[in-house]
C-alpha cells in the first residue's frame, strides 16, 4: 500500500454522509464530524462484497471468531490478553456508556467526567438521572493538558461518586494518558471504590503505538472495576457499520451489563457489521499504519502553516486521534463570532469548542483525516482569514 491511496477520494454525492451533507453545494470544507474521508480498508470492502454476494443478510449471531478478532487485536497491538468471553457487543460507544451507567450505578449517583470532553459524556450521565461531577483538565504552560489529581481525589472520596468516565485517548485535547497517569487514576479508584468506564475508541489512533495502554491491562486489581468501550469505527472508518464492543473482565459487572443490554433490546449485530469487524481487526493493520502516517503528515502541515502565518491560533500538539484542538483565544472573538469566523471567512465547518463543556470556549476542533490537498487548502483558508481579520484591526 502507498500513501497515494489517501489522495484519491470518492464522491460523497448521494450517500447521505452526515459530514458532507450539511453544506452540500457550498464552498465549505467539512472538517467537523470525527470520521475519515477515506474508503474503508480493502480487506473490509472485500469481506463486505463477499457477504453481499452470498445473498443472505438475516439475523446474525456474535460468533467466537468475532470475539476472538476483538481480543486478538488487543493482544497483538498492546499485549493485553483479554478473554473473548469478556466481550459484549453494542451498536456504538455512546450507547455502551449509557448502558453501563444504567447497569452499574443507581439514579442519583454521581459520575465524574473530565472536560473539555466529548459532548455525549455529559448527556449519558444527566439523561439517565445521575448527577454530573466535573473534573476539568488543567492546561500546562506549553498548551498541553493534565489531570487535576488534587481535585479528582477530593471528588472520588465522596461516597456518592460511583463512576469515572475516562476518555483515553482524550477527545478533543489529544492526550494519550501515560502509564504513570493511568496508575495514579487506578490507585484512586481502587482506594475509593469507584468504577471506571474507559472510552478507548481512539486508542488505535495514538501517534506512537507504544504510547497507548488499555486501562484494564494495568493490573488485575484495576481490571476488576473497569469497563472498556472500544470500536473499530474510528480506526478503520466504518462508523456506518454501527459496531462497538465492551470488554468487561469482572463477571458481576459483565452480568449487570448483559442484563441491561437485554432490557434495552440490544442483542443483534448486522450481518455486514459482523463481517466488517472481523476483517478489520484480522487484516487491517497495514492499512492503519499507512493512514496514521498520512494523518500525521496532515497535522504537521497544518500546525506548521498556522504557526508561520496565523500565530494567533495555537494548535495543541496531539498525542493521539486525528483531531486538532485549536486555541483561538488570540483572535479576540467571542464564541459566536469565532464560529462565524471559521464558517464565513475561512469557509470551514469545524466543531465548536464550547460544545465540549468547561474549558472549551475559544477553541475549535478540526478533523485532519482528509486528503493532503484538503489539509493544505484548510491551512491556507485559515491563514488568509486570520490575516484579513488582523488587517481590519490594525
Automatic annotation (TrEMBL):
It is an enzyme of class 4 (lyase). Its cofactor is pyridoxal 5'-phosphate. It comes from the Bacteria. Gene3D superfamilies: Aspartate Aminotransferase, domain 1, Type I PLP-dependent aspartate aminotransferase-like (Major domain). Signal peptide: none annotated. GO terms for molecular function: cysteine-S-conjugate beta-lyase activity; pyridoxal phosphate binding. Its EC number is 4.4.1.13. CDD domains: AAT_like. It holds the Pfam family Aminotran_1_2. Residues 34-382 form the Aminotransferase class I/classII large domain. Keywords: Lyase, Pyridoxal phosphate. NCBIfam families: C_S_lyase_PatB. Belongs to the class-II pyridoxal-phosphate-dependent aminotransferase family. MalY/PatB cystathionine beta-lyase subfamily. This is cysteine-S-conjugate beta-lyase. It comes from Paenibacillus herberti. The lineage of its organism: Bacteria, Bacillati, Bacillota, Bacilli, Bacillales.
